[in-house]
């Protein structure tokens, strides 16, 4: 698949799940991939396996991400890094949980944009892919604080298209339903119970499915911007509020 001549990509939240799957897929297509995550150990393993360039840093640190990407002619930015909080009503979300959600899910995205968009504008081309969530588009009980941050990403993606109108830069929002990345295990104090509830009895999407969706939007003709793509498990409806269990 031709990816419009893109040569350099940046992927945040690259150490596991969708991010790691995408790093592998982009490297297989010959791109220079800069992988960002806080975990130096898993990033080093990914770099050894794929040849990506690892950057162990916190996306919430604007100075760190700016320094890491300084001088790079970035063609593709995939804002994938995300934090979750244990489920419950919004008014029970702790200050620490809220700080973490805002730092990664919102400030982290803006920090990455600040590092690469000026260069994209100067070159007159580029592609920004923001990972949203069905939680940001549909009322889903039990995860309102996380959902608020993903709703903000939906608004940001739309506003970016206004900000970048006429620049030649495409903006795509990918909105996955439940993906078996392990992130859902952080929604409950009992991780074993979360494993049973979210993954064991249903057929969820896999990280490679979302990586394939991202490759599709990157590879679309330059005249075509896939602005919003919702990707749901076949057995799930209404943003994930109803999930059919598979027998056996």
How would you portray this structure in words?
With 248 residues, the protein is of the alpha/beta class. Helix content is 42%, strand content 17%. The strands form two sheets. Strands 3-2-1-4-5-6-7 form a seven-stranded parallel β-sheet, sandwiched between helices. Strands 8-9 form a two-stranded antiparallel ribbon. The N and C termini lie far apart (37 Å).
Strand count, sense and barrel status of the largest sheet are:
7 strands, parallel
Distance between the termini: 37 Å
Structural shape: globular
Mean pLDDT: 92
- In N-to-C order, the SSE pattern is EHEHEHEHEHEHHEEE
- Beta content: 15-25%
Q: Using only CA atoms, what is the Rg?
A: 17 Å
- What structural category arises from helix and sheet content? alpha/beta
Low-confidence segments, ≥5 residues, pLDDT <50? none
Helix count equals 7
Work out the helicity level. Answer: 40-55%
Main β-sheet, spatial strand arrangement: 3-2-1-4-5-6-7
DSSP strand count:
9
Topology of helices and strands:
Elements (H helix, E strand, L loop, with lengths): L7 E5 L4 H12 L3 E6 L2 H11 L2 E4 L5 H8 L6 E4 L15 H29 L2 E6 L12 H20 L5 E8 L14 H10 L6 H13 L8 E4 L4 E2 L4 E2 L5
Parallel strand pairs: 1-2, 1-4, 2-3, 4-5, 5-6, 6-7
Antiparallel strand pairs: 8-9
Helix pairs in contact: 1-7, 3-4, 4-5
Which descriptors would you attach to this protein?
248 residues, alpha/beta, 7-stranded parallel beta sheet, two-stranded antiparallel ribbon, globular
């Amino acid at each position: 698949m031709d990816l419009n001549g893109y040569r350099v990509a940046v992927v945040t939240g690259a150490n596991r799940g969708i991010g790691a799957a995408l790093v592998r897929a982009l490297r297989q297509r010959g791109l220079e991939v800069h992988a960002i995550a806080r975990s130096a150990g898993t990033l080093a393993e990914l770099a050894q396996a794929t040849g990506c360039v690892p950057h162990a840093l916190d996306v919430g640190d604007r100075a760190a991400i700016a320094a890491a990407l300084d001088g790079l002619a970035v063609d593709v930015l995939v804002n994938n890094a995300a934090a979750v909080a244990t489920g419950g009503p919004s008014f029970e979300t702790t200050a620490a949980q809220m700080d973490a959600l805002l730092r990664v899910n919102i400030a982290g995205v803006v920090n990455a944009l600040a590092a690469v968009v000026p260069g994209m504008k100067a070159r007159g081309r580029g592609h920004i892919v923001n990972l949203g969530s069905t939680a940001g588009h549909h009322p889903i009980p039990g995860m309102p604080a996380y959902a608020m941050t993903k709703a903000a990403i939906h608004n940001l993606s739309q506003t970016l298209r206004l900000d970048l109108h006429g620049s030649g830069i495409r903006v795509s929002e990918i909105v996955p339903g439940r993906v078996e990345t392990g992130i859902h295990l952080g929604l409950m104090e009992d991780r074993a119970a979360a494993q049973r509830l979210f993954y064991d009895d249903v057929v969820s999407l896999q990280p490679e499915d979302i990586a394939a969706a991202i490759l599709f939007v990157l590879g679309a003709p330059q005249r075509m911007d896939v602005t919003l793509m919702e990707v749901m498990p076949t057995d799930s409806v209404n943003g994930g509020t109803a999930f059919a269990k598979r027998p056996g």
